[in-house]
Amino acid sequence: MSEPSVTLAASGGQAAAQARPDAALSLRGLTVSYGEKPAVFSVDAAFPAGQMTAIIGPNGAGKSTLLKAALGVIPRLSGEVSVFGQPLDAVRGRIAYVPQRASVDWDFPTTVIDVVMMGLYRQVGLLGRLTGALKARALSCLDRVGMASFSDRQIGQLSGGQQQRVFLARALAQDADLYLLDEPFAGVDAATERAIIDVLKSLKAEGKAVVCVHHDLATVRDYFDNVFMINVRRIAEGPVATTFNGETLNATYGGRLAATHIDQLNLVEGA
Amino acid sequence: MTPLIEALFLQAGYNAALVAVGAALLGFAAGAAGTFLFLRKRALVSDAVAHATLPGVGLAFIAMVWLGGDGRNLLGLLAGSAVTAGIGLLAVEWVTRRTRLSEDAAIGAVLSVFFGLGIVVLTVIQTMSSGRQAGLESFLLGSTAGMLFQDAIVIAVGGSLAVLATWVMRRPMTLVAFDAEYAAANGVNVPGIDRLMMALVMAVTVIGLKIVGLILIVAMLIIPPVTARFWTERSQSLIWYAGGIGGVSGYLGAALSASAPDLPTGPIIVLVAAVLFLLSLFLAPARGVAAAVFRHRRFQRKVHRRQGLLALARQEPIHDELTLRVLRSEGLIRADGVATETGRAQAAKIARDERRWDVAREIHQDTGLTGRYDGLTPIEEIFAPDEIAEFDRRIGGPRAIGEGL
C-alpha cells in the first residue's frame, strides 16, 4: 500500500492506461454511447485479483453500463477489455455475472435449482447431461447462500433477498475467478446482505476477484478493498483507505452529495 | 357420434386419417417450437412472420409457372413462403433495431404491408391465363380436402426437425428467454438464438400453411405453451406439455372436422386448443382460477374462525355474518349464537395459544421461529411439546379449560 495508487483522472489518467498484469479485469478507453451522448467515456480501469472492488457513482453515471460493456452484454463504441490478460471470449468460462434482480421476469417457469443449474450450462454444453454430481454441486452452492431448502420452489415465490441469493448461487456454480455483480445489495433484507457479503469475502479469500456496482456509500469502507469512482468518466481508482475521501466523492457526485452526508461516512482525510 | 368415433380411430377414410395424423404432428411441433417464443414474450412476431408468407406463396407460383410447371408443387410454394417470411422477420428486426419504433409497431407495419402485397400478388395470379391457380387462397385458412401423402411427409419431417432443434437448443434458448443479459455475459450469441427461435417458428408456420393456414397458425404456436404453463413450473417440461397439448388439439380438431361435412379443419383445431386453454385456466391445480378462489376461501374461513373464537374467549359479541356462519357450520356455536362445549374449549385453546406466543416472543429472540407467527398455524407445529410446557409454566395460573379435549 506504499505506492500512491490514487489517480484522479485529471492528473494521472495516462499512467493507469497501461493494463496491470495482475489485474483480473482491465479496461482501456472503454466508451459506450446510447445515441450521441456517451454513457461511459474513455474509461481506463484495472480491477485486481484477490480483492473486492466497489464501483460507485451517482445515478446515471454509467456504473452498470460499464459492467455490461466490459462483458459484451451491450456493444461498446470503442475500447479494449482484457480478463486475466486475455481477450474476453477466450476466458468467458472464468467470469460469473450477477445481473440486477429487476432484469428478469420472476414468473418464468423455472425453479430455484433450475436457475442455479443455468450456471452450469456453459460447462455441460448443448447435449451434456446434468449429472447427479452436477446437481449436488448446484445444491451445495445453494447451501452456501442458505437457500438449500428452497431448491424446488418456483422462483416467483421467493422474497427479493432470496432471489438475490439464488442469483449469487448461480454465479457460484460457474466456479469462476472473476465475479461481477450489479447492485447485489439493492433492496435486500439485512440478513441477506450479511449472507451475501460473507460469501463474497470467502471468494476473495480464495483469491478470486470480486467487482460490485454498489450504491450504499456507508458500507463501502466495511465491505471493499478498492473503490472505482465513475461519473461517465473515471474519477478515481484505488484502495478504499486512500481513495475514498471527501475530495474524490465531491468530484464524483458533484454537488449532489451534501457535505453533512460526506461527514457521516467517517472518512479519512484525503491522501 | 359414430362419425366422430370413426374419425378418432382413423377409420373415417384415407384422407381423414392422413389429416388427423398430420395435424397431430403439426400441433406437436408448433407447441414445442412456440414454447420459447412465448417465454421470450415475442408471440406477436410470429403473426408478422405468418402473414409475410403470403407474397412468397404467390411469387413462387408465378415463378413455377414461368418455368413451365403448373405452379402447384407444395414444396416449391412452401420454399417461396419461407423466403418472404424470412424477409418479413428481418424487416421487423431491422425496424426495431435501427429506428426508434418499438417492436409492436414494427410487427404491425410488416404484417400489414406483406399481407397486402400477398393479396395483390394473388389478384395478379387470378388474371394469369396459364397455370392452375385455383386453391392458392386456401393457404389463408388452410384446406385439407386434397391433402396428399407427400404433404403429410413434409409435415412429419419438417415438424420432427423443428422439435429436435428445439430440444437440442433448449439450454441457450432458456437462458436467453429468462435473462438475455446473463446469457450474453455467458457468451451466448443472443441475436443468433433469437433468430433461431424465429427460424423454428417460420418452419412450423410454413409446414402448417396447408392444414391451418397462415392466419390461424399463430394460435397453434401460442395457445399450447400458454395452456401448458398452467400445469408446470419448469421450462424444460413446458416444451413437452405444450407439444402434447398441441398434438391433442390437432388430432381432436381434425377428427371433429372429419366427422361432419363442411367443418373447416384449421379453425376447429384452434377452437379445440382454446377449449383446452379454458379448461386449464379454470381447473389447473396450482395456477388455475378455481384453485386460487378455493385457496382464498379456505384462508378466509381460517381467519374468520380464529377471529370468532377469540371473540368467544373474550365474550365479545360477533356481528360478522361470515364469522357466524363459519362457527355454526363447525358446530362451535349454536344457531342462537351461544358457544357450544366444543366452541368454548376451542376458544380457550386459541386464547391460551395467544398467551403462549407472547411468552415465546419473550424467551426466543430468534425471529426465525417467532417470525412464523401468523395466528393460524397451530403452535404445536412450531414449538416442541417441552417448549410449550415451559411457556405454560411461565403463564402460570390454573390450567386453561378445554385441556385434554
Topology:
The complex is a heterodimer of chains A (271) and B (405).
Chain A: H1 9-16, E1 23-34, E2 37-48, E3 52-56, H2 63-70, E4 78-83, E5 86-87, E6 95-98, H3 112-118, H4 121-124, H5 132-144, H6 160-173, E7 178-182, H7 190-205, E8 209-213, H8 217-223, E9 226-231, E10 233-239, H9 240-243, H10 246-253, H11 259-264
Helix pairs in contact in A: 3-6, 5-6, 6-7
Chain B: H1 2-8, H2 14-39, H3 43-51, H4 53-66, H5 74-98, H6 103-127, H7 138-141, H8 149-168, H9 170-178, H10 180-185, H11 190-208, H12 217-228, H13 235-259, H14 265-283, H15 289-313, H16 321-329, H17 341-363, H18 367-370, H19 385-395
Helix pairs in contact in B: 1-13, 2-8, 2-11, 2-12, 2-13, 3-5, 3-6, 3-11, 3-12, 4-5, 4-6, 5-6, 5-11, 8-11, 12-13, 12-14, 13-14, 15-16, 15-17, 17-19
Number of strands of chain B: 0
Structural class by helix and strand composition of chain B: mainly alpha
Q: Report the β-strand fraction of chain B as a percent range.
A: under 5%
Helix content of chain B: over 70%
Level of helix content of chain A? 25-40%
Major sheet details of chain A? 6 strands, mixed
Mind telling me the C-alpha Rg of chain B?
31 Å
Note the gap between the termini of chain A: 12 Å
The chain-level mean pLDDT of chain B equals 88
Q: Would you count the extended β strands of chain A for me?
A: 10
Which term fits the overall shape of chain B? elongated
Count, helices of chain A:
11
Point out poorly predicted stretches of chain B.
Answer: none
> Mean pLDDT of chain A, as a whole number?
86
Please give the largest β-sheet of chain B.
none
Q: How much strand content do the residues of chain A show?
A: 15-25%
Order of helices and strands of chain A: HEEEHEEEHHHHEHEHEEHHH
Q: How would you describe this structure in keywords?
A:
heterodimer; A: 271 residues; alpha/beta; 6-stranded mixed sheet; 4-stranded antiparallel sheet; 11 helices; 10 strands; 24% strand; globular; disordered N terminus; B: 405 residues; mainly alpha; 19 helices; 0% strand; elongated
